[in-house]
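Hi R.,

Here's the chain you asked about this morning:
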Amino acid sequence: MEKAVIYREIEEFKEVHLVLKNASSKQFYEYRFEMDDFPNIKIKNITNLRETGLIFENNKISGIPYVNSVHDLDIEFYHTHDEDSTEIKKVHLFVNADPKDLWKNIPSDTNDIYYKPDETSYEGKFLDKKITVVSKRGRSHAHEGKCRDDDFAVNELPGGWGIVSVADGAGSAIMAREGSRLAVVSVNSFFNSEEILNRIEQNIEIVYNSSDSSKEIQSEAGENVLKLLYKGILHVYDILEQTAAEHSFSIKDFHTTLIFALTKKFDFGYVILTFGVGDCPINLISPDFSEVMLLNQMDVGEFGGGTRFITMKEIFSDDMVSRFGITCVNDFSYLVLMTDGIYDPKFMTENKLEDIDSWKAFFNDLAGNNDDRAKVDFINDTHIDQQLLTWTDFWSRGNHDDRTLAIIY
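And the predicted structure, written out as tokens:
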């Protein structure tokens, strides 16, 4: 082949405007060189690549870059008809900063009033199933060194009952973190009573397990259950109101949402008693993952941008009964409670909470199909709470609230 042709093809490759796609720090990167227009040009090596954390092999750059910067790279190449001569082509690789690194992570002040850890987790038994719950401070609070406002509580109760409650303290309320803690602790404490649970159970038996009871009697029994649940919520309000008065605060300073699931396995199935105020969902997924139910009323839509809190007296109105739920199923695969720190980035809209495909995507995400490759293994579930804590550190632009997630499985 004439030297002039070799020279021309080398110079054409040198002059072509080659733009490498941008990389992102701490995220897997891959770029393959398409050489169809230069069949006689072979890339031998790329110098200055090691400092990026990437490697070059099989005509592609790949790996996980760890330093955000503009990297000057030298592509060493040769012409197939002149393999002894190595030429250099200069290109640039832009590695964008990991968005997470732009957020400060300032520990909250352990001497602050009503201090709570920046993250906490729980794993254990729940009825004849298992449960894991995590609560992690959001990036917005971490950036300012503020405490976590979310909270949760799990309790094994007398008579084979169990309860899990989750609360999201309002960011605008100065005592929100204590409000959420008091809400979950006080509602669980109220139902930690053999007398109350026995009364609930007697009425549940009439509703679901008494063939000789009339519809009127069954309806009355159901109303009796709701009345007892109502007393539990009223108890929470009274505790918050009393605490506010004792410390010269307004109850508004303790604004918090609250959801809970009070459950027991009977001979005729699992009974799940629920309550919700605010924008935190409770979802039940069928054993074969074919159906999902939203078990509580969500304060979105007409209340968008202004959620309701357990500290608002107006929620104790005529429509209060719609906030409670009585559900009975033979079995289930998952019972999930979460705050909006999980709900907003993963579901975005209320209608997706009742869309089984959205839930399949959610559990696929939990299984490791995510940018961080963080996996929560419900089979090999040793330290599953730590797996879930790691997963909750996911990045979602514009979603930096506290994240609390409870899963019974």
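The helical segments are 3-15, 139-144, 176-190, 194-209, 215-246, 340-346, 356-366, 384-391.

Let me know if you need anything else.
M.
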